[in-house]
Amino acid sequence: MSTWASADPVSSGALLAVRDLKVTFPTEDGLVKAVDGLTFDLRAGETLGIVGESGSGKSVTSQAIMGLHRGSRAKVEGQIVFDGRDLLKIVDDDLRRMRGRDIAMIFQDPLSALHPYYTVGNQIVEAYRIHNDVSKAAARAHVIDMLDRVGIPNPQKRIDQYPHEFSGGMRQRAMIAMALVNSPRLIIADEPTTALDVTVQAQILNLLVDLQKEFGSSIIIITHDLGVVAELADNIMVMYGGKAVEGSSADEIFYEAEHPYTWGLLQSMPRIDAVKQARLQPIAGNPPSLINPPSGCAFHPRCAFRDDERLGCSSVVPRFEISDEHPTRCLIPQAERRAIFQTQIETRTA
Amino acid sequence: MTDLPTSGRTPDDEPAAASTSTATSTPSSAPTSTPTSTPTATPPSAHDASRDRTSGASGGRRFSRRRKAADDDVALGEVILEVTDLKKHFPMHTSGIIRRAADPVKAVDGISFSVRKGETLGLVGESGCGKSTAGRTLLQLLQPTSGSIRYKGKDVTNADPKELRKLRNEMQMVFQDPYGSLNPRQTVGTIIAAPFHIQGIKPEGGIKAEVQRLMERVGLNPEHYNRFPHEFSGGQRQRIGIARAVALRPKVIVCDEPVSALDVSIQAQVVNLLEDLQDEFELTYVFVAHDLAVIRHISDRVAVMYLGKIMELATRDELYENPLHPYTQALLSAVPIPDPRRENKRERILLKGDLPSPINPPSGCVFHTRCPRYREDLSEAERTRCTTEVPVIQGEEDHRVACHFAGPPKVDVI
């Protein structure tokens, strides 16, 4: 990837180009700025990981792409260009034709995302027949094939069962089958394995990798688990307080993190492969308010490296230069940051 | 958890000495410095506790003296808690009008381990393996079906309520859900003060001062004494729960997934706090969690559970560097590592299928239905052994395994 995103979303050649996306929710306490000026590109066949903590705006972003805020009190601004069309401008009927066929979503909690009154097969057949003019019997055969592909044993029998008869891992497989049944070009997976046990998570992640190879879909995977994106993502965007703070290739994020928040996250995680158990290095403080976000850099109250006098971290809003190779929303000059991180590591090991 | 405080139990927010506003008719007149003549009096029930508290000094004891007396019993590194063949089965009934007894859910099915004073024992496993039930049964929040729990050498398995209350002075719990485990209608001060009221203990300097000291110790602003739980973030709420658990200076704390509801950056704060408190008060932790990275960080020894049984129990580094049970190996191998280059080279041991039902667990070794070693490496005769004979947990003191064919994995698991 040469740059994070180009200036013109239509000619950028990306499958999905998001420009200055803003989602706000009016509440009794004030306006919640859940997503505050997000810009990124996703190319065909690529996997983008969106990482952030609760309240960072990662799920709201995915809902905005799917158009799930339509008809609600939320206000969505900016551009979401999918295959040359701005999803925020097209009419509901057009969007409905695209949902499921071109863009599909895998939700975190398959028990609440699947309808409890209908059989699993019924729901997937419906999703297929909405977009394809085929007989019920043909659709059913296709769905059985799909269930088999996602690793559900005995699909002929399973297709007529209800969601409650499935285990958590099986339900998530059924969700994936539903998302893939129309071979969409973009799959948005919102915390697809968070509710699952680690051995089942490993099965599902493997399945996603295999199916992506087979179908060639682009994937946006939203998660708080850096381990999951390390396995799946080509590119990673780190979000904090509704904004992207850093975006780059997965390798860059993990080995050359630029933003103090990303760096802090990586340092604060206990590692299963850490032989020497040093004291954890938490990020001080709490996540920011989305109603009254901190002035200047949203991360400055928690940042160990802030320098108000020289850089004005609490007053100047840092920019996220999308033309950069590795855009980072931080006022500290890049060369300095690297030096600071290095000294931190050295003083700690000393 | 969400029940309203009954009038008789309404704990006052003021220090006992200054109290004139208790809901009950007799305000406490106990100056906190009064040493009591009956230090052994333990109130038999919650209502009696509040009666004691509000009717004078008889129920109060000097906090520091109690601490000192209890400290002498077990030295650091000695066994403080011993569990033998502990079982917890939940009875089930058939559906319909006539509800006959059906096969029970064997949530915990015969586990044995000991915990030494000052150490952290990690209990790890997937959902439904019985780790939380084990933790709760340890504290007898759930009545064990059979087996024994010995605390400081004394069998406390079937302690009567009076003895149990006394025991809870020394054994406490931190819960997973920082939202569900704090009464939304009580102020933080009331919540953290509850153990003092229930146990009828008057700390030196008064309850309010002690509660504020605790709040400060766990990293909360003592001025927030009168705030309600909803005014705090998840991490701060977990600190409230921790302050409540350490209020009585317990010896053993069962931590049931204390950090799994928290964001990564906050998780580290709480883990560090728990470690600091452990050093400061010589606490012993039984740490229940599903996150193998957190368990590796915090534990001295680790027990891996599956379907109500302990599969492998070893010192931390032994378990992570030399796992011998096929289940432990699969579990470790399934954890994604936040390191893409390493991640790309790893070979996963994938388990097939789902967790069997704890109502009707597989015969022989409960893991054999999903075991990669059973499937790939064993002869017919060996397999028969897995399906018929329940493996006994055995081995060296620092590394015990419940597998007929325990051995190192074929590939590196981490």
Give structural attributes.
heterodimer; A: 350 residues; alpha/beta; Rossmann fold; 2 domains; six-stranded mixed β-sheet; four-stranded antiparallel β-sheet; 10 strands; B: 414 residues; 3 domains; eight-stranded mixed β-sheet; 14 helices; 12 strands; 31% helix; globular; disordered N terminus
What would you note in describing this structure?
The complex is a heterodimer of chains A (350) and B (414). In chain A, 35% of the residues lie in helices and 19% in strands. Chain A has helices at residues 58-65, 92-98, 110-113, 120-131, 136-149, 155-158, 168-180, 198-215, 226-232, 250-255, 260-268, 308-311, 334-349, and strands at 16-27, 30-42, 47-51, 75-82, 85-86, 103-106, 186-190, 218-223, 235-240, 243-249. In chain A, strand 1 (16-27) and strand 2 form a beta hairpin. Chain A starts with 15 loop residues before the first strand and ends with a helix. With 414 residues, chain B is an alpha/beta fold. Chain B folds into three domains: 7-71, no CATH class; 79-91 and 103-303, Rossmann fold; 320-401, no CATH class. Chain B contains 14 helices and twelve strands. Chain B has an eight-stranded mixed β-sheet with strand order 6-7-8-3-9-10-12-11, with helices on both faces. In chain B, strands 2-1-4-5 form a four-stranded antiparallel β-sheet. At the A-B interface, helix 8, helix 9, helix 10 and helix 11 of A face helix 7, helix 8, helix 9, helix 10 and helix 11 of B.
Short overview:
The complex is a heterodimer of chains A (350) and B (414). Chain A is α/β, with parallel strands linked by helices and 350 residues long.
List the helices and strands and how they pair.
The complex is a heterodimer of chains A (350) and B (414).
Chain A: E1 16-27, E2 30-42, E3 47-51, H1 58-65, E4 75-82, E5 85-86, H2 92-98, E6 103-106, H3 110-113, H4 120-131, H5 136-149, H6 155-158, H7 168-180, E7 186-190, H8 198-215, E8 218-223, H9 226-232, E9 235-240, E10 243-249, H10 250-255, H11 260-268, H12 308-311, H13 334-349
Parallel strand pairs in A: 3-8, 3-9, 6-7, 7-8
Antiparallel strand pairs in A: 1-2, 1-4, 4-5, 9-10
Helix pairs in contact in A: 4-5, 5-7, 7-8
Chain B: H1 46-54, H2 63-71, E1 79-93, E2 101-116, E3 120-124, H3 131-138, E4 146-151, E5 154-155, H4 161-168, E6 171-174, H5 188-199, H6 207-217, H7 234-246, E7 252-256, H8 264-281, E8 284-289, H9 292-298, E9 301-306, E10 309-315, H10 316-321, H11 326-334, H12 340-345, H13 372-376, H14 380-388, E11 394-396, E12 399-401
Parallel strand pairs in B: 3-8, 3-9, 6-7, 7-8
Antiparallel strand pairs in B: 1-2, 1-4, 4-5, 9-10, 10-12, 11-12
Helix pairs in contact in B: 5-6, 5-7, 6-7, 7-8
